[in-house]
Amino acid sequence: MATYRTASESETIALGERLARELPAHGVVLLIGNLGAGKTTLAKGIVNGLGAAAADEVSSPTFTLIHEYGEGRVYHVDLYRLDEPREVATLGLEEIFERDGVVLIEWGERFPRLLPAERIEIRIRPLADDEREIEVTRLPGNA
Ligand code: ADP
Ligand code: MG
Known about the structure:
Elements: E1 2-6, H1 9-22, E2 27-32, H2 39-49, E3 66-69, E4 74-78, H3 85-89, H4 93-98, E5 102-106, E6 119-126, E7 132-139
Parallel strand pairs: 2-5, 2-6, 4-5
Antiparallel strand pairs: 1-7, 3-4, 6-7
Helix pairs in contact: 1-2
């Protein structure tokens, strides 16, 4: 587990770029934190760091649910607007999890049974003002 602090939106984007270098090319990454914590902001940096799109081309998939960048290199999912696991099931996430790519998911922790055991969890907590604490945990798969 690693913990970081950022003091601005641009520092969080820069951290995402750094974290992207340590991510496996294939894997699920949960972005966990309240509304406005900075999940989408961190996703901008990760997408840019993976070379899939520029940070300012990344927008929140709150309404569209899934955005794809770099021809499948990165998927960015936001489950905020879904309430039931069966609604999530219609998205075909399992099939996306099998593809070669990084899958970033906001609000995915609300549907734990739909997630692979092997995943990375990134928690973002607001501290004072524009400061954020960002904690990265790697969960091993079921052996
Ligand atoms: P979420 O996806 O978690 O709802 P967003 O990334 O969309 O959050 O929004 C984060 C908001 O917080 C933005 O308005 C951003 O400018 C602001 N902000 C302030 N400080 C930071 C920081 N250190 N890191 C990320 N965002 C920050
Ligand atoms: Mg968001």
